[in-house]
Amino acid sequence: MSKTTFSLHSPLDMHIHFREGAMLRRVAPLSAETFSGGVIMPNLVPPVDNQDRLDRYEREIREVVERHAFEPYMTLFLRPYTESELASMKDRIIGVKLYPEGVTTHSEEGVGELRDVEDTLALMQDLDIRLMVHGETTDFVMDRERAFLPVYEDLATRFPRLHIVMEHITTREAAALLDRHENLSATVTLQHLLITLDDVAGGLLNPHLFCKPIAKRPEDREALLALALEAHPGLVFGSDSAPHPVDKKESAGCAAGVFTAPIALQMLVGLFEEHGALDRLQAFVSDNAKRIYGVEPPAKTVVFEKTGAVIPERYGDVIPMYPGRELDWKVAEVR
Ligand code: NCD
Ligand code: ZN
Question: Whose CA is nearest to atom 4 of ligand 1?
């Protein structure tokens, strides 16, 4: 009997947390195996916010993923930068990430007042450096992204030549913003296409689905899924895969972050197939990103086969989304 297969070319993960040291060595190869490249988030402790830190972090990543055709697209943590700092690091990064102070994991050094970084944003616009944003305020948790949307509109209007990426959008209002400003694009995660707050906290609390921004309402998920399935030209896949050791997840004071890197592509193939949209997946996981960010990742073909597979319970001390769940598709070959 012939096997059903499906192929993706040079898939990209435009928002990923690799961490450092032992965690990096555990998780980065899992992404590098199937993805051709990824946007590496800078929220380390201390953050990646100077040339030396950037050099060392990039070198550490390249050593770990050496065996694979994988391009790490590096980012800097936004603080007030001088023109010479930005000019010297510009060619080494894909963007600078704005974390409002205290809104998520390791954002203590984030931006308190936007006016503190206005000059830097103007420099970034002049130097053609992209701004990536964790778009949440410190309002009531379900309203944090919606409350941030006027900031996106304000920045997009006042800095019309600055490319602004709304990271990990979770609401239908954020989805709608994409069509209102030419200089806005967005990433969306796997979990926000699949789950709502009900899956996190509607029954027994599921710490492995807890992340920032928190999953929202069914109508939000539907709006995001519709955009992904049509491969909206302003939307790209960014897993926001964010590993934490099991003792930090299954504990009082659970850390925010869902670990999806090794299963994201297989699950996306299943999801797009279920909705009759497999012909759009290439654009959503690669072509849109290549166009929007102007990158040319290493050539890689990932062949998926429709055959039963099971999500591992653990990757070392990290528990993935949906441990033990059966999948319809598995990665059969990478070439
Ligand atoms: C991320 C992390 O753990 O670094 N956590 C998360 O819930 N998404 C940080 C982030 O992207 O907000
Ligand atoms: Zn993230």
Answer: 105
Query: Does ligand 1 come within 6 angstroms of the Cβ of 17?
Result: yes
Q: Is 211 in the pocket of ligand 1 (CB under 6 A)?
A: yes
From 13, 49, 220, 240, active-site residue: 240
Mean pLDDT on 14-18:
98
What is the predicted pLDDT for the residue at 1? 63
Tell me if 145 CB under 6 Å of ligand 1. Answer: no
Ligand 1 centroid to residue 220 C-alpha, Å = 20
Measure 106 CA to ligand 1 centroid, in angstroms. 8
Q: Is 215 in the pocket of ligand 1 (CB under 6 A)?
A: no
What is the pLDDT confidence band of residue 278, given thresholds at 50, 70 and 90?
Answer: very high
Residue 240 known to be catalytic: yes
Mind listing the pLDDT tens digit for each residue in 290-334? 999 999 999 999 999 999 899 999 999 999 999 999 999 999 999
pTM metric for this prediction = 0.98
pLDDT digits (tens, 9 = 90+) for 155-170: 999 999 999 999 999 9
Ligand 1 in contact with 212 (CB < 6 A)? Answer: yes
- The rounded Å distance from CA 83 to ligand 1 centre is 29
Q: Which of ligand 1's atoms lies nearest the C-alpha of 106?
A: 4
Query: Which 3-state string (H, E, C) describes the chain?
Result: CCCCEEEEECCEEEEECCCCHHHHHHHHHHHHHHCCEEEECCCCCCCCCCHHHHHHHHHHHHHHCCCCCCEEEEEEECCCCCHHHHHHHHHHCCEEEECECCCCCCCCCCECCHHHHHHHHHHHHHHCCCEEECCCCCCCHHHHHHHHHHHHHHHHHHCCCCCEEECCCCCHHHHHHCCCCCCEEEEECCHHHHCCHHHHHHCCCCHHHCCCCCCCCHHHHHHHHHHHHCCCCCEEECCCECCCCHHHHCCCCCCCCECCCCCHHHHHHHHHHHCCCHHHHHHHHHHHHHHHHCCCCCCCEEEEEEEEEECCCCECCECCCCCCCEEEEEEEEEC
